[in-house]
Amino acid sequence: AISLIGWTVAAIDSLLFRAKERGAMACRHGLTGVAGQKRLRPLSYFGLALAVTSFMAPLCAGLPENAGNVTADGSFDCEAGDAWDTPWPVDKTVWCCINRGVRCHFPTSPPFDCRAGLPNWENGWSEAKKQWCCRHMQLGCKELEHVPPHTCGVSAVLDTEGYFRPSESVQPVCNHHMATNCSVSYSSMQCPSGCDYLVPNHRFVCVFECVPKEQCSTSNPNRAFADPETGLCLPCSVQGCKVCDKRDTCSQCHDGFELNDDGSACVFYLDKSWHFDRIVTCAVYTVVALVLLGVIWRYVKGGHHNREENMKSIMRARRYRHLCKVHNWQLGNAKMVREMYPLTVDVHNVHILGVGLPLFYNSICFLAVIAILFTGVTYITFTGAGVGVGLASADRSDAALVAGAVRPEGQAPAVVLSPLAPCGQGSAYRMMDDLREFASSNYYAIGLLYILTFVISLVHGKLQLIAARRYDAENKTMSDYALRLSGLKKDLTNEAELTSKIEESCRAACSQPAFTEESKAVEVVGVSICYDYSKEWSEVDAMRDRFLERMDLDLQKKMVSDSHASGNEVPEEEHISAANTIAGDEDELRRQVDVDRRQARAWFDADSKERLQSTGEVFVVFRHIRDVDAVWAARDQVCRHLQPLAESIVDPVELFQVFSEPPSINWWHLAVHPAERNKRVLKAMFKISAIITFVQLLIVLPYSRFILWPYSTIGSSAGGAKMQVAGAILGIVNTFMGIQIWLTVFGLGFHRKDGMDMMVLCSNTALGMINTFFNIITSCIMVFSSSDDGFGPWTLVKMESVVAIGVEGSLAANIYNMMMPGTFFVGYLMCIVMAGLFPFAWNSFLMKVIYVWRCLPDSILKVLQVFLPWAGDLTLDNYPFARAEKGFEPMEVGISGDYSAMIVNPSVCFCMLFFVSPYVWKTFFMMFLSMCFYYCFCRYQHLRFCKAAYYTTNRLDTMVNFLWGIPLSVIAAAWCLWGIRSGHIVPEASTTLKLILVASAFKVSLVAWMLAYRFLLNPWQQHDAAESDKSTFEDVKADMLYTWFNCNPVYALKCEYYYKDACRTADSIAQDPDALQVSIISARGLRDADWLPFAGSSEPYCVVEIVGKPGSKHQTHGHKHGKNPVWNFTTEFAHFTDGDSLLFTVLDKDFGKKDDVLGQVTLSGDRVAGGVPWPFGVG
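Below the sequence we write its predicted structure tokens.
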């Protein structure tokens, strides 16, 4: 490979002719062009010249023996009168090319086939072939004939080109890397005078060097102590020491470290100039002083005057933290409500958080399969090639030493543990031949892995689509009962009227003979209008929060009232009142209710100037799945019937299937046009890129340059106070970046959560890729800069130097240490600690310090209040339970963030395929263990630790599969690289062209994967699964927390403050003084509808509604005492209109059949207005 590079350089510099008949002229001018390149070092010059001239054998064949013109001192007369077209013998050509710079030529192919006749090389090869093959291929090299068998000493010497050649003596020499065949110790070798100390190489265990005392750490940064007794360079106990006089005394430190007065330590320059230890000490003293001050202040002042009420808010918030986690609420089970799912729950067949959860766990299993596949193939390839012995490191574990123990013959059971144990197993100068065999095997192995991974990935993608459709078919969700209608007039905001018109149009469209009688009777439960409140977003959110806070108070009052009636008193510490709200008292709460009610009228009154418009879209909710199927089948006719309601002819009414659940709809963004959203996305991408670049250049880069880099030169890692400070800063920065990404994506205008999740995924993946590969590049620079052999990333496309192999082995070790255990295991655990446990403990502490103990001066408490979430605008007196709940709220189930690690980590692992190292298969094995751990970890994190968040489509998984092309393309690039290194691909090309080819392989593979996944599987095309279940919308609603109505914030506020069917308890804070209050106390003398034997007694309940106004029904609870039930039920009808009549219906609750009607009565409007004497009869 060096010869090919030399040929390229010489050809460019001297414009050589390549024709064989012009070869003599090339010899005259070739090396002159090379010699004129001052950038080439002497060693490179010598290597190029030697390689070039050895290629001249075919041109110079057939010369007479006297053509060399040998002089008396063994040199040649290079000016002898041979014509340029007359070939020279090889020995004269080599000598003149090297010493005189004449007759040099770079042919296009090697002059000898070193594989031909290899078994009989000693007798069958010419001397020229032996010299060329030994130097360039490490084949046909003579052993040291004068060295007795089993003699321990120097077996090979590393020449200037990076190859091992046979040593002329068993004794060491100066200024050379040497290989030993000693399998126990170096004690039998004595370094010559002037380089008295033997230092083992830190990359190859069988390689060493003889150096002067002051160069021990230069050759091996881990061995700075020159031991005069053993003649070895040994480790020094002083970190950062360059020259160690004694084992624990340093005389000279490495750059970036300063020697202290007694030589016992090398102090890192930042530790000395910035005094990190003092900073930490001051911080500790400050904390201790604050604690003492707090104890004294608490003793003197006696704590917070409102501590009991504030403590109730904190305890309620802790309960809220538990309740907002993932639960099986079992709303249809009267005996058991709300329990956590077992960790072993079958997420594929139980609707927990949507289809996204089982697909996520499928992806983890897929990565585990890929990891174990790569582990097996890379392990077999590496161990089968036999390169592990030559690449063994001196810093091996005890287990590795035991595995390679030496058992001397005749001295059993004696066992010798030594790092040198493998050194006697092979000749060092044949290492490159083994490496070339490994390169060829690795080329085929990685090619096989790439093809298998490509196919398995496509199969996995297909199985994910099948799993998503099967999940949809087996689980009944709200999306199964809804269709989305768009293009309507924006002033159509009356839900009742719109429901009636849509139902009428659907029935008309389905009245054709092709439809069954059931399908013709389409029933529309209601519509959820998508309101345009983008300008009122903050007002709606604030009103919703106040509404939820008052709802909590109402429920608390009801719970206390019910507990009094049942005799099960609620503990006093669980009681909350208006004092625990943001308002602080009940009068202020009522004032807020009046303000909110006036605002609702302004938003929803038909003649109001502030009236909210719709976005032109509504979700139409049907009673049966068959209704949805029938309307979808007749969608063209339905749209034609609804065309009079269209905003314009240009924007016709259209009907769409719904695949997202109500919690996954971003209701506040539905008014954002896709074109506007795309503009925001471009701006967000620029903003996120700017943030990442800013952090990398101003924080990460200085951290690497001024902290990590100096430590890398001494073969160690940074630690102490500076790393604690730096780690805290980096942690805060990463947290800040994550929050910024989420906030940026949150405001872009995605209509559905899955679109926002995909943007978060892409952003986090980009962030992870940049952070990780920035660290890898930094590691590369540090490794290559620590080598004084002039090697860089370009050496990865060659297979020409043992030193270069050692450098890339160090780089592989650095990447492995970066991944294991930090990225593979510790990172996941730290996520729970830093995003869960630490915030919970910290916020609990701050809450009690500020609002319970009040153990510091108010000025300090105000500062601490800044660090308490959602408390910045509060006073120090009252801590509302709603804000405490926000402060204790756990992190959401973040599958989008979890997915990004499943793209970044495999990409880094696949980068290990570029290197020759035993850490390659170890990395994949750790990746497999990491996936097994991650599967169990995510089970616990999602089902026990995180706040519930729904992932109700497979679009996020589809985006992950598209991004999978990145790690897959890394494999393709590695395949191409090993094809180049093994000589199977463009062996004659320049280094630049080879690097371009590797990059092109990555791009071609990425495009091929995206096209294959897109057109073979077509994942974006969604189909609603066929479902034959007879369940109604009400049946599904009874078992779910959410519907298309309670997830719509504007509709929920409209029902609470505007609609006349608002239902509240009599003591509700939000009650309207103008509302009609209706109390249903009891009934007497009802007939027993369950008269059959063993049928039990009746369970009557009463329904009250406004006649002629659908949706105004209110219902009491069922009562076990059949004939004389007592309900004590109170409700109200807001803005009751004079003349409205009330209908009371008493029914018997039955299971398995329609409820029996026990009686009905209608109260006319005049009787209602005059007050109703009771009791009154029901017919």
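Residues 802-853 form the longest helix (52 residues).
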